[in-house]
């Protein structure tokens, strides 16, 4: 099934880059959410049924969760999924299967985003 690319989320203002910040200094879901706005390009169908968020790296999932919340507000009936090219694996002594595809879930838990796996 074909589709098209729509730059649906725009940053209204910059937030600290997670990759260069210590864990405690990384932007929260709320900071990401507040910095995002839904783009209203005329090429978007009125009511999309499926949206896929594409990101380069997923760590905890804060960026993806915030983007999904913004998109859900604008398109409450759309099935919203996400794809990240790379997922972090934390500090593990032996990394196995780093190139294997992985399917998981990002959810709100304990006041923060939680990615499983």
Would you kindly provide a written description of the structure presented here, covering whatever features stand out?
With 117 residues, the chain is α+β, with helices and mostly antiparallel strands. The protein has one domain. It contains 2 helices and 6 strands; from the N terminus they run E-H-E-E-H-E-E-E. It has helices spanning 29-35, 62-74, and strands at 9-11, 36-38, 50-58, 79-87, 105-109, 112-116. The protein is globular.
State the shape. globular
Low-confidence stretches: none
Give the count of structural domains.
1
Distance between the termini: 28 Å
Give the helix proportion (percent range). 10-25%
Mind summarizing the main beta sheet?
A: 2 strands, antiparallel
Average pLDDT reading: 88
- How are helices and strands ordered from N to C? EHEEHEEE
Q: From the alpha-carbon coordinates, what is the Rg to the nearest angstrom? A: 15 Å
Would you count the extended β strands for me? 6
- Helix count equals 2
How large is the share of residues in beta strands?
25-35%
Order of the strands making up the biggest sheet: 1-2
Helix/strand structural class: alpha+beta
Key traits:
117 residues, two-stranded antiparallel sheet, single chain, alpha+beta, 6 strands
Layout of helices and strands, plus pairs?
Elements: E1 9-11, H1 29-35, E2 36-38, E3 50-58, H2 62-74, E4 79-87, E5 105-109, E6 112-116
Helix pairs in contact: 1-2
